[in-house]
Amino acid sequence: MQMLTKQKRDCESFWRLVDEIGHRGADLHRRCQAINDAVIFTPSPDHVLACRSDAKTLKADVAKIKERVQKANAEHPKLGGKGEKARGGVFSLAFSHAVIVFFQKLITVITACNTAISEALALPEPPPSTDESMRDSSHSQSTVVDATRGDALAAASSTTASVTTSSAKDEEKHDPCVASLRATPLTRLIISFPGQQHARHVHEGRGAQPQPRAQQAEHAMEQIQRQGIQIRETITNAHSFLMQHDLRPRMHRTGVLADEDDADSLDVEQRRCGLQIHVDCEKLKEKWAELGTQFSDWDKAVHAAALRLQELERALAECQLHLSSVESEVEHLRPVERLRLEELKDARRQCESLATRVNDLRIHVDDANDACGRVLAADTPLDQHPRNQLDSVNQRFLALKTALRVRSAALRNALTDFGPSSEHFLNQSVALPWQRAISKTNQLPYYIDHTTEKTQWEHPVWVEMSKELSQFNRVKFIAYRTAMKLRALQKRLCLDLVDIPMLEKCFSRLAGLSNEESPGLEGMVSSLLPLFEQLHAKHPQMVRSVALAVDLCINFLLNLFDPSRDGLLRVLSFKIALVVFSNAQLEDKYRFLFNLVAQDGQADQKHVALLLYDLIQIPKLVGEAAAFGGSNVEPSVRSCFEMVRLSPSISIGPFLEWLKQEPQSVVWLPVMHRLATAEFAKHQAKCNVCKMFPIVGLRYRCLRCFNLDLCQNCFFSQRTAKKHKLKHPMQEYAVPTTSSEDARDFARMVRNKFSRSKSSLGYLPVDVG
User: Fold this and answer.
1) Which portions of this protein are annotated as coiled-coil regions (predicted)?
2) Class of domain 460-677
3) In 471-492, which positions are buried (b, 16+ CB within 10 angstroms) versus exposed (e)?
């Protein structure tokens, strides 16, 4: 009975063992799936199907064993305990060994992850550049992953074959298996960091282009992110596995018939594998976090280097663009020795403009040099190509500056030696013992008399002209005296040959200056030189020396508007003087003068005052300004704006109407025109004083005495004849009279015989009170 009771207990233990084997088979299927998900690659559908097939085969084998045991118990209900127990013990050992193998697989994966990450971290800090071999890293990695998947699935399917093997044979293979799995190179390549090869190539100095570096860095980041997902899944699965299994030491035995030594060794091995999984998992997390931090720093360094290189390339491109533009203009410049004298000033102005552009270009060159300095300061290796580009930019910039400096010096020397302001150009305007020189203080000409060793501002010819003007002082009427002096100056300066179109061309050379600016000596010479060259070509007998004409005209303008040589001659004054002394109709002169000071067809009181002030300087030059109001132009301005009822501005119409009334301040100008018109006029009349016939010039007929005519010389000197008196009204004729004019004057003479008419002024008086 005791034997039967013992066998019954053994049978019950056996059936419990069989049930446990069934539970272990189901758990094995779940573990296979968990381990399959724990690896860092994503299995293909074929591999998943193969794994599931192996699990189904294992379940089928377990079911067959269970069925065979049930049949054996059915045939021998009371016996078979020891043999079945022995087979069950062998199966339990085989199954437990299969679980250990899976533990070792999972440990190997985690260990390989740690090893690969440690190797990646052990590499030297790479510079911010990438490697061309990055392109093949994805393909090589996928090949390794596929090979590793096959090994992992083969290891999973080998559990079925291990059920049929003996425990002794498995124990012999157990120790070398664990050692070999730890050193398997394929498992290390599973989680190999793509940047490992990249960092190695960067450390060797390969790769230089910023755009591929940035692209490859982004590609490496994507691979890191993908592998990060796999590693996190591995860590999660490892934690899940550890939570699902109790790795604590057993406090009781599994069964009476179990081999205590084998069971204890399996439990110890399982606990060791579980603890190894936990340690390797924590180490994997730490290493992976450290690798992520270093890769993030490396990625930032790559992007920063790419931005610096792009900035350098952009600065070099801007420098090359601006340099090419300026170099093209410099190449098209005419050599200094081929320039004409009147072109020297424009060439100098153009050279100064180019020099200004080159100075502005220095900003771009400095930006390129600073960008290169920032790249080198960041310990980034720079290729020879950008270095050569930067050296070329600096050399071209220096060559351009040197070329412009040389050209500027050549133009300056040409202007000094042969230009308008040089002594060599205008030294023909004076004869020995006189010498023309340029003052260093105001850059204006003065004249040296080597006989008396004295200097003066006035041209020697101008001094002679001033003496000749004194012969007109015998003229009693101020307006005619002033007009005759100015007419003599006009003819002596050859300005009576200049018309308005020629003046417009002359003034175009001063287009860059406003009316308030000073043209300077060079500006006046460059404007007057082409003018008198043209006059010399048309009238060679009248303009015999261009140098004398130019120098004399400049001296006239300086004496007129800048007698103290302070450099105060304005462009407006320069134009007004030339227009007044030009050969044009009186109304055309008035219109041109008004347009000089008008804006949009209107002139205010200030600009009209400026015009009248410059006009009054002309009679002041010959000492006749007092009779025309002097320098006080306010009464004349007030008289002018009375035409528009003191409006703030005046147009051309009222201005011309006011001037036609011959106001006192400018009455000398129409008188000068009448003198010029009557200069060669011949009148069929005889002077009753000097007996000149025909009368040449102005003719004066008395409107009270019958048939009494005077020539201009007798009239200006106030000579009389017969009963004629100076207070008698006179009629002036600049051109020969017509029959209607003779009849009109005869009627006026008869009327004056019988009645006295009030005398009237021949000009518009200006109230200076």
Assistant:
1) 309-364
2) mainly alpha
3) ebeebeebbbbbbbbbbbbbeb
